[in-house]
Amino acid sequence: MYWIALALLAIMDTAHAQMTAEANVAPDLRECYTDPELLNRNNLPPVTIQVLIDIIQRIEDNPNVNVDLRVLAVLLLHTYRQDGIEYHQPEMGLSQSSIVLPFAPTFHSFYRHKLLLTKLIPSNRQSLDNNTISSPLKCALHHMLSTTVDSRVRGDENTCGQLSQYRAMRTARSAPSAENNVKEDVELFSPTGINSHSGQMRQYDPNSDVEINGFGGSKYERQLLGASTCPILGGVINTKWGAVSAGNLIAGIAAGAQLQQTTVTELSRGLVNEVANGQQSVINLYPATLSGDLAEAVLVQGTKGSNTINIGSTGNWNSSYASRYYMLSSRNNVEMTDPEIRGGIDGFILGNRMNNILQTYGTLKLSQLLDMYYNPRNGVFDSSVRACNRREISKTILNDNELVAQSEAFAAALNANMPLQGTLLTGLNQLVSNAVANFQTYTQSNLNDLDCISSELGIDYRTITNLYIVLDTTWPYQTIYPAITYILESIEVGKYGSSVTLLSAYDGSVVINKTFSLSEFHTNYTLATHQSMLSGVNLENTYTNIKNMMQATLLDESRLNYVGGNPTVLLFLLNSGNLEINDGVREQARIINETVPDLRVIYATANNQFDNLWNLVRDMYSDIHVISLSSSGTNVENTLTPVLDNIRQVSRRIINPLCGFEYKDESSGSRMLDQYIEPGYINFYSISPNYFYDNNDDSKIRVISNTGSGTLTVCYSRVVAQPRRNATVAGTDDSLITCEDLVTNGNVEISLKDACDGYSTIGSCPLFYISVQSTAASIANPLCSNNNVCRFPFNLKFQIQTEQLGCFSSGTSIAASLIFVLFIQIFNIFRSF
Ligand SMILES: *[C@@H]1O[C@H](CO)[C@@H](O)[C@H](O)[C@H]1NC(C)=O
Ligand SMILES: *[C@@H]1O[C@H](CO)[C@@H](O)[C@H](O)[C@H]1NC(C)=O
Ligand SMILES: *[C@@H]1O[C@H](CO)[C@@H](O)[C@H](O)[C@H]1NC(C)=O
Ligand SMILES: *[C@@H]1O[C@H](CO)[C@@H](O)[C@H](O)[C@H]1NC(C)=O
Ligand SMILES: *[C@@H]1O[C@H](CO)[C@@H](O)[C@H](O)[C@H]1NC(C)=O
Ligand SMILES: *[C@@H]1O[C@H](CO)[C@@H](O)[C@H](O)[C@H]1NC(C)=O
């Protein structure tokens, strides 16, 4: 009985696991090509490393997916990656066919993919269930992982040349030579080429394992429809360190976690392999990453008669912040494009270290590994193992001879599996050597991505906040979407970071619930959602609803004994002019100001409305901005920098949970808050005077260092919102800032005694600012194994203890305000008669 069940399971496994290796679109992925909502990628989340990490986290957190990093990497490839899917214009009359899906995996990248899944990185487990993630996330993940080129003419080709304007400022790549392109295009489209190849399209049996003579001729068929001069490369994600083919990246990790050697004969299905004179086996990490693309380039270009193999092909996103379409600058020599090079190197670096990494920390999550590698600091248990350092590492770990031997062996194997334009008789070794040499030169001289020194110039603290965006839908979606995307990415909306909630400026109603998931926000905030929102701005309704919502949140926190964490930022993004600010608005704003102290209100408006808004914000000089956005999305970064700086100034809050929003005087007693910090980073905190206004000699904050956290620096100030030790004036603290070192297992005590002495109102007494900084160098061993609270395993733990915080508010003013509201309402009732 037992063995029968086992056997059945095994059959189901193999039947299921290799769907994405078959020559038609895998059943679970079909809806990505049939459902018009999903087919339009503008409805899917942008393809960025942050979104990829977020989707992987959602899979990891799915209770039905209980697998480790090794298995997950393999399952992702087997479930969501299917390279080479192309559109095929149906024959006349068939265009409406409901029984044919006009997509099939026919591009050259499919054949390597197939070998990877069936022979090199096989899965002995079932693939992930169809409902593991929602359909939009499934399709987004599929497009991030699956390398293909879509050469359909779109009609926007005339703007491709302008893509360079979106090119990140740092990259100064040499453009591919224009003459070459023209020449090759002409060649490709020569009438003889078309004539001699059209009509050769042969039917092939998708279930046959042998399709050597299959589909090669169809390429010309497709191109008869016209080919885009800047085709879209699929399977690419955007990172700060260049566009990366995520399929190569994940395949490298999967192969490295389960290294295996396979013979060329096995990969060639036993066919006598005439071209394989060199090494007779490959290690899976090579074909999964660099050798896979090198072999494709050698075979595709070599069989066209070329002696030199072109490596590298530039391209760019057609929008820097809504990155969904990566457009190549040429349609020639696209076998090893820039993103594939980067993905190949990154996958190789991580795959190569996989054993080492898993020995250091066996329970590392795949999402954490990616997060550590694509991060400006610290790296993967070694600060040199970071994306910013890929070019340097590749110099030291890629041995030319080994790369040539592995690539040659794999090219021989691929040659027996892939339909090509000609038959390579000899000379494989020379072509591979040429390709490897060109790859090395290109990588060292053309991939000028952000380096580590520049990466580290960035901000050394994490912005962490609960952001509420109050959106006026008179903004065109095309204009506001890139801005919102940029803001969310900058404040690191994510499982361990910030949250976002989308509210309507019409009435303050919730359009998208609070979420810590970038991908969830993006799947919900589509053009259709934007258009379904009520248009216009009514600040009185909006403020009233927001006040109720914020007060309810404080009560929830009270119930949960919440001691601190993300502050709240309310960001108004308004396009409408002439805002109406009546007494009702001001009254609600005042109540919010008094009862929700850790809420920062920021206005960003399309035109200058300072005169209307100055008395609605805490600091009229910093909290009101004019933003000029355009539908091309080009000025997003510049125009939003002041807004982001503003959001970044709002520190983590520390509160007395007993206060709620009513502030009946209740002492917090002693409470503890666990906090984590990354090596080299600083955390900022602020405490509102609502928690210490009346003097209590025993009111204090204690920062306690835990075992292993090393020396931390604690600073505090009443004036500087982000206090830190001033290295230039070592030892002598600024008169405005006090700093103390906190040694392991020690503590620093900060007294709040008389902290509001001399201030006659709560509103005039400033916040109390505290910072905790770790000056540790990057840390090689894991310290935090709780993945629910620690973004990285090297996070350092410390604690914040609050003693005797109170609850203070202009108590009478709440009663007064109620009467005032009543009065306003009565007044309005009378007015309406
Ligand atoms: C996968 O799930 C989607 C959404 O529930 C469904 O439409 C689709 O038919 C499923 N695919 C398969 C092969 O069952
Ligand atoms: C990018 O190109 C795609 C495909 O042509 C198009 O749908 C999208 O609107 C373009 N995005 C921008 C910002 O131009
Ligand atoms: C937000 O969450 C609430 C409660 O969980 C739910 O009732 C509501 O439908 C959600 N709203 C949206 C827009 O998803
Ligand atoms: C997004 O939309 C889905 C489907 O309408 C809904 O179930 C989900 O709650 C929404 N998410 C948020 C964060 O509003
Ligand atoms: C450090 O102090 C000096 C002198 O007061 C000042 O000029 C400098 O800007 C300070 N640096 C930082 C990082 O605060
Ligand atoms: C909120 O309180 C601050 C501090 O007292 C004050 O400067 C600001 O004007 C107040 N804003 C409103 C809208 O009442």
State the total count of DSSP E strands.
26
Low-confidence sequence ranges: 1-15, 164-225, 812-821
> Judging from the principal axes of the Cα atoms, what is the shape?
globular
Distance between the termini: 83 Å
**Major β-sheet strand ordering:** 13-12-11-15-16-17
How many separate helices? 28
Derived from helix and strand composition plus strand pairing, the structural class reads alpha+beta
Main sheet record: 6 strands, mixed
Percentage of residues in strands: 5-15%
Give helix % range. 25-40%
The tally of domains stands at 3
Helix/strand layout:
Blueprint: H1 2-17, H2 31-34, H3 36-39, H4 49-60, H5 69-80, E1 85-87, E2 103-105, H6 109-120, H7 135-145, E3 148-150, H8 178-188, H9 191-197, H10 218-224, E4 232-234, E5 236-237, E6 244-245, H11 246-257, E7 261-263, H12 264-267, E8 281-283, H13 285-288, H14 290-302, E9 315-317, E10 326-328, H15 338-360, H16 366-373, H17 390-397, H18 400-415, H19 428-446, H20 452-456, E11 466-471, H21 477-490, E12 499-504, E13 510-515, H22 518-524, H23 527-532, H24 539-559, E14 564-565, E15 568-574, H25 583-595, E16 599-605, H26 610-613, E17 624-626, H27 636-648, E18 652-654, E19 670-677, E20 682-687, E21 700-705, E22 712-717, E23 737-742, E24 747-751, E25 768-774, E26 796-803, H28 811-831
Parallel strand pairs: 11-12, 11-15, 15-16, 16-17, 18-20
Antiparallel strand pairs: 1-2, 3-4, 4-10, 5-6, 7-8, 9-10, 12-13, 14-18, 19-26, 20-25, 21-24, 21-26, 22-23, 22-25
The protein binds 2-acetamido-2-deoxy-beta-D-glucopyranose (6 copies).
Keywords: Membrane, Signal, Transmembrane, Transmembrane helix
Signal peptide: 1-17
Transmembrane segments: 808-830
